[in-house]
Amino acid sequence: MYNITRSPWVMHYDGSSCNGCDIEVLACLTPVYDAERFGIINTGDPMQADILLVTGGINTQNAPVVKQLYDQMSDPKVVVAVGVCACTGGVFKDCYNILGGADQVIPVDVYVPGCAARPQAIIDGIVKGIGVFQERLEKMEKGELKNQEEKEEAGKEE
Amino acid sequence: MNEMTVKIIVAVCYVILAPILGGLLDGIGRKISARMQRRVGPPILQPFHDLGKLLHKDPIHVAPSQNFLMMSYLFFVILTGGMIFLGMDLLMSMFILSTAVMFLYFAATVTGSPYSTIGATRELLQMVAYEPCVLLTCVGFYIVRGSFETAEIINGDISPIAYLPGIFVAFIFILTIKMRKSPFDISTSHHPNQEIVRGITSEIGAKNFAVFTLAEWYETVFLMGMVALFIVNKNPISIPVAIVVAFLVYFLELLIDNCSARMKADKMIKLSWMVTIIAAGANLLALIYIFK
Question: How many domains does chain B have?
Answer without folding.
Answer: 1
